[in-house]
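Preliminary data (for renewal application), copper (II) ion complex.
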Amino acid sequence: MYPIHTRIVAAVSLALCATLSHAADIQIKMSDKSQTDGVLAFDPGFVKANVNDTLVFIPAGAGHNTRSLLTPSGAESWKSPYDKEFRVKLDKEGVYLYACEAHKRMGMVGVVQVGNPINLEEAKAKAAEESASMVLNKDRFTKALGQVQ
Ligand SMILES: [Cu+2]
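Predicted structure:
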């Protein structure tokens, strides 16, 4: 028989695993060319997530990063190093906009919806402002935001 404290630790670990198993990792590739969306793209460019899920940005080409452009009230902004896998925990509901800093003007941007899109109007306004300075893929934000529901 294991000592009592070992059994308690095991029981607590098990309970913790059961809780955490509801949270998912959602992979987003930072691509030179996406299968579905053309050159210089986050793939997928739109994801719908639940609170406590984690985005995992994965380099699938060189010279990309991810930086938030808009996050819901109370959520932390982020800025990743270039060419590194990067994780973003989503702990507030709402709409998130982000871009690759090197290729924002080429429309290398993405949208995440977490739970209810409580700040959708604000996100649309910010997306329109950012899209105005893009020279390529100008409709990416509009297309991604069109999938919010
Ligand atoms: Cu890039």
